[in-house]
Design goal:
Layout: E1 2-7, H1 14-17, H2 20-27, E2 32-37, E3 50-51, E4 61-62, H3 64-75, E5 82-92, H4 95-101, E6 106-111, E7 116-117, E8 127-130, H5 139-151, E9 184-185, E10 188-189, H6 199-217, H7 229-241, H8 247-251
Parallel strand pairs: 1-2, 1-6, 4-7, 5-6, 5-8
Antiparallel strand pairs: 3-4, 9-10
């Protein structure tokens, strides 16, 4: 996969894309990443990428002409990229969207700054994405989140073969609690089932804890999650006993 970013602060990507799984993905040849400086496509001596908004108002608006020129050049370097704008007006980002974006061979993220982007630039967008109902200083920050979520789903990026399969949202639910050594710490013990060696019992416990956690924290996810008949029965028990009822009563 090839990912390009177009922004006024391309140096912001250095630490993120040069560390951890993003670095490994590039070293394995699974990801080709390029951060482009929008100022390359300006033509005044101040390399201006923004201007005052028509009609007045606070702040500065990013100009559309450098964005179009940059897009024309970058799109000509291979297959047309699936082009993403990061904006508070976009679709809420989710795991399914990350999976879909990962199916494209090439992505181009166009990142806003200042008060916003000239509306005409959005005619280039295949997708407009928002991370949530809040405003960030720059689209670069938002694009890093999306890129990370997309790249880690590329087969071969994560160390474990099924590394992404058991994570939150992979099956529509939140992931269950995780534990490691020591088995007891400050009076808090690891659930005995995880020490039992019974793989079937462990799998059931994890599924049930995933259902419990989702019901407690994100019940909206249950509306679209693929649930089995056993899942529905367990959720009914949770609702009858109360979400915070004793685990032994529910699992027993």
């Amino acid at each position: 996969m090839r990912i390009d970013t177009l922004s006024t602060f391309p140096d912001m990507y250095g630490s993120v894309m040069g560390s951890s799984m993003m670095r490994i993905a590039q070293e394995k040849g699974l990801l080709e990443f390029h951060a482009h400086d929008l100022r390359r496509w300006t033509h005044d001596r101040h390399r201006t990428t923004d201007d005052d908004p028509y009609g007045g108002g606070a702040g500065l608006v990013m100009k559309c002409d450098p964005i179009f020129e940059a897009f024309d050049e970058l799109a000509g370097e291979g297959p047309r990229p699936h082009t993403v704008f990061l904006t508070p007006c976009g679709e809420p980002f989710c795991d399914a969207m990350a999976r879909e974006l990962g199916s494209y061979g090439r992505l181009l993220f166009i990142c806003g700054h200042y008060e916003g982007i000239d509306e005409r630039a959005y005619s280039l967008a295949d997708r407009q994405i928002s991370l949530g109902d809040y405003v960030l200083t720059s689209g670069e920050l938002a694009s890093m989140v999306v890129i990370d979520a997309v790249v880690r789903k590329i087969p071969g990026v994560l160390g474990a073969q099924d590394g992404a399969a058991d994570e939150s949202f992979a099956d529509g639910l939140l992931e269950p609690p995780q534990y490691t050594r020591p088995a007891e710490f400050r009076g808090m013990a690891v659930p005995p089932v995880l020490l039992s060696g019974d793989h079937g019992a462990v799998a059931r416990w994890r599924r049930q804890e995933s259902l419990r956690r989702t019901l407690e924290r994100r019940p909206d996810l249950l509306e679209s999650a693929p649930l089995t008949a056993d899942d529905m029965l367990y959720l009914d028990k949770l609702r009858r006993l109360g979400q915070n009822g004793p685990q032994a009563d529910i699992n027993g």
